[in-house]
């Protein structure tokens, strides 16, 4: 029988990532207040709305959608879906992220204009924020948001008009940007989400054999946010630094 212990210490259920967001209230060029549009390459993301109201705007092969958000509602989107959190009034969300550790290791690409996406150094400079949570970081986060909205509006306009070419070009550019990170992501996935699933398989084997000795290791854990009010992609972000499970975003 395989060892049912996880490869990483006490991951959250399913080795998910967890954070809390308060959507930005900065007004963008189109008069909408909200976050920085982006996509994830290999992770599905879910919003669990805990307060307020707003929306999430998405771009995908099925077109442009504006999904209302209010307390108690849930929305989730698969890899490749461009999403933009929109503030409607004190919008607060708990974010559940697949493959914990991957988003923090770079599994997200902003919808910057094509000329920025084509230059890795320029992209990195635009995407990275100064450390801390002060005014300098806030100003950089707003500039980053505005640049992402600039590219996003072009993608949305084309998609609504029936032209998915710019959207597909953005997906390909995003894939090029993250390609060198794949070996690191694979290692994180094997140690986290895959190991968690394999542990369940080992536990099922133990139960089938009538030998549930692993239940002798049952215990409970607790955690509190380790950084409050960080500047995330969509809003101010409270995060949990659980070893091997949820890491602080790089560059935020």
Pick out its properties:
single chain; 252 residues; alpha+beta; Jelly Rolls; 7-stranded antiparallel beta sheet; two-stranded antiparallel ribbon; 9 strands; globular; disordered C terminus; Mannose-6-phosphate isomerase-like protein (Cupin superfamily); RmlC-like_jellyroll; RmlC_Cupin_sf; isomerase activity
Runs in which pLDDT lies below 50 for 5 or more consecutive residues are 1-6, 248-252
Look at the structure and give the mean pLDDT.
Answer: 91
CATH fold title: Jelly Rolls
CATH level 1 class label: Mainly Beta
> How much is the radius of gyration in Å?
19 Å
Largest sheet: 7 strands, antiparallel
Shape: globular
CATH architecture: Sandwich
Number of domains: 1
Distance between the termini: 42 Å
How many strand units? Answer: 9
CATH superfamily: Jelly Rolls
Name the structural class: alpha+beta
Helix content: 25-40%
Beta-strand portion reads 25-35%
Continuous helix count: 5
Q: Which series of helices and strands comes N to C?
A: EEEEEEEHHHHHEE
**Assembly status:** single chain
